[in-house]
Amino acid sequence: MRFSALKVLTQGLTGNRGWRAHWRDPEPAEAYDIVIIGGGGHGLSTAYYLAKEHGLRRIAVLEKGYIGGGNIGRNTTIVRANYFLPGNSEFYSHSLKLWEGLEADLNYNVMHSQRGQIGLFHSDGQRDAAIRRANSIRNQGDDAELLSVAQLRKMVPYLDYDQGRFPIYGGLLQRRAGTARHDAVAWGYARGADQLGVDLIQNCEVTGIDIVQGVVQGVQTSRGAIRAKKVAMVVAGRSSQVAAMAGMRLPIESHVLQAFVTEGLKPCIDHVISFGMGHFYISQSDKGGLVFGGDLDMYASYAARGNLPMVEHVAEAGMTLMPMIGKARMLRSWGGIMDMTPDGSPIIDKTHIEGLYLNAGWCYGGFKAVPASGHCFAHLLATDRPHSAAARFRLDRFRSGRGLMDEEGTGAQHNLH
Ligand SMILES: Cc1cc2nc3c(=O)[nH]c(=O)nc-3n(C[C@H](O)[C@H](O)[C@H](O)COP(=O)(O)OP(=O)(O)OC[C@H]3O[C@@H](n4cnc5c(N)ncnc54)[C@H](O)[C@@H]3O)c2cc1C
C-alpha cells in the first residue's frame, strides 16, 4: 500500500476502513541468510538497505520487545551533520543526505524538519573551537554559519544574554540540521523492509549465538533456534550483553541518558538550541511540548528510567539559558541505555568470528546516524567490505590505539562523551 494525498482523502471520506497493518507478523523461519539482532532504528534500516540496495530477501530482524520500544523511540530527535573529525564528518554528512531523501524513499512521513540547529559558545576559546568546527564542516561540503550576538538576539530573543556567569558570545548555526519524529522513523523503515520481504519478528529475544569452530551458525531465541549464514548484532545499549553470548568483551559501557518533555505550548522555539556551558539541548515538538535533554548519569547502568537528581541538574541548565522555561510544566521524563565507547565514536565492523558482525557504540548521537548506519552496515554485510563513509569505524582501534576519533577532545573515558 502506497501513501498519497489522494489515499488520505479517500480514506477520510470512507471512514478510514481501508488501512492495513504496516507490517506482517510472521512466525520465525528455520533459517535465514542474515539474522539481525535488534529491531531499533539501526537494525531496521540495515534490513531495509540490505533488501533494497543489495537485493537480499532471506533476512530476519529479531526484536526482544516491540518495534520502536528502545532508544529509537526515546531520543530527543536531533538530526545534524556538524561533526569535526575525519571519520565522523563524512559519515554524518552521508547520513544527512540520506535523511533529505528519506520520506520520498520510504513513502512515509517521518516529519523531518530542517529547522536549523544553533550551538552556543560562551568564551573566546569556545568561539575559536566553533570556527575550527565550521571550517571542517564546510570542507566536508555541509553548511555552517557563525552567528554574532546581535544576530542571535533577533533569531532567539528568549535566551538570557545578560547574565554574568555564562555570557553568550555567539552561535554556530547549521540550517540543514533539525529534528524528525523518532518512532515514525522506526515505523517507516519497518514498513519498507517488510514490503521488501524482510521478516520482522517481535517478542523474540536472542539468548545465545551458535558458533562452531569460529564460524557462526545461527542464534538461540525465546522462540527457538534459528540458523543463519550471517548474524548482525545491532542492539545499542545491550551490545556488551549480546556480544558476551559470542564470548566477546566489547570496549563499551552502558549508561543512562534521560530526556524530558513539557506540556504543549504555542510555538515559541523555532530551532534546536544547544547550550555550550552545560549539557542542555532543546527543541519544540510538533505537538508543542518542549523536548530537552542533558548529560549521562555518570555511572554505568542498565536502568532505562529517570531520577530526581538529573531532573534538577537539567532544569538548572535550562533555567540558566532560558529563564522563561521555568513557566512551563514538565510532563514526563524517561531514560534510555547508551552504548558508550571510550572515544565516543561508533563501531561498524566484522568481528573475529566468521559471519558475526557488530554495529554499536552510538553513544547519545545515534538517532541522526540511523540512515547511514543501516546503509553502511548493509554494505558491509552484503559485500564484506566497509562502506567508504564508515571506513574508520573499526573495532580494533581500541586495541591498537590507532584511529581513535575523540570528537569531544575529552580523552578516552566512556562517560565523558
Ligand atoms: C534520552 C535520549 C536522547 C537522545 N537524543 C538523541 C538525539 O537527539 N540525536 C541523536 O542523534 N541521538 C540521540 N540519542 C541516541 C539514539 O537514540 C541512539 O543512539 C540510537 O537510537 C541507538 O540505536 P537503535 O535505534 O538501533 O537502538 P534501540 O532502539 O535501542 O534498538 C536496539 C534494540 O535491540 C533490542 N535488543 C536488545 N537485546 C536484544 C536481544 N537479546 N534480542 C533481541 N533484541 C534485543 C532492544 O529491545 C532494542 O529494541 C538519544 C538517546 C536517548 C536515550
UniProtKB/TrEMBL annotation:
Pfam families from the UniProt entry: DAO
Q: Which UniProt keywords apply?
A: Cytoplasm, FAD, Flavoprotein, FMN, Nucleotide-binding, Oxidoreductase
GO BP terms: namely: tetrahydrofolate metabolic process
Q: Which cofactor does it need?
A: FMN; FAD
Q: Which GO terms describe its cellular component?
A: cytoplasm
Its family? Belongs to the SoxB family.
Which protein is depicted? Sarcosine oxidase subunit beta
What species is this protein from?
A: Planktomarina temperata RCA23
